[in-house]
Design a protein that fits this description.
There is one protein chain. With 166 residues, the chain is an alpha+beta fold. It has a domain of 114 residues: 3-Layer(aba) Sandwich (Aminopeptidase). It has a 7-stranded mixed β-sheet, sandwiched between helices. A hairpin with a 2-residue loop joins strand 6 and strand 7. Helix 1 packs across helix 3. The protein starts with 5 loop residues before the first strand and ends with a strand. It holds the Pfam family Acetyltransf_10. It comes from Naasia aerilata.
């Protein structure tokens, strides 16, 4: 990859590309962790596009921050954060989504996406698949640590990680 991806705030017209990255990342990352029926659902791409369109245009999501990584004309990474959804965690921001196409991993684009939606000086929380050692190591490098909470969503076991503000 000779041209670095550009990270910028997401726009409504990014929704189709964001949906493609979301679905491709799920398939690359969660095959064997998430049920094949979810990953291979022919309606998954359309459902993710509806989700991203709403997330970028509906006033109920106005407090969220969304960013994309773009290489050329193609979205190659996505991120979104917003108000914490876990009432028992005293956190300013929750990272909801951070996905990169596999070819983009290790390029620094993930760091830029995270900083775009959850700056390093801000405390935060997130849920990450377990096992997913690469993602968990990425978040540990960024100051997150497991707090002992676990859940299962879409058939995937997840652990919660938190980061104190600086």
């Amino acid at each position: 990859m000779d041209v670095r991806a550009v990270v910028r705030p997401a726009r409504a017209d990014d929704a189709p590309g964001m949906a493609r990255v979301h679905v491709a990342s799920w398939r690359e990352t969660y095959r064997g962790l998430m049920p094949d029926g979810v990953l291979d659902d022919p309606g998954l791409l359309a459902a993710r596009e509806r989700f991203w369109t709403a997330a970028l245009t509906d006033a109920q999501y106005a407090a969220n921050r969304s960013a994309v990584a773009v290489r050329g004309d193609a979205v190659v990474g996505i991120a979104m954060s917003g108000p914490p959804l876990d009432p028992e965690v005293a956190s300013a921001v929750q990272l909801y989504v951070l996905y990169l196409l596999a070819a983009e991993q290790g390029t620094g684009t993930g760091d830029e996406l995270l900083d775009a939606v959850l700056p390093a000086e801000q405390d935060g929380t997130l849920w990450v698949a377990d096992p997913n050692p690469r993602a968990q190591a990425f978040y540990r490098r960024r100051g997150f640590a497991p707090d002992g909470a676990e859940r299962t969503e879409h058939g995937v076991r997840e652990v919660r990680m938190v980061r104190p503000g600086r």
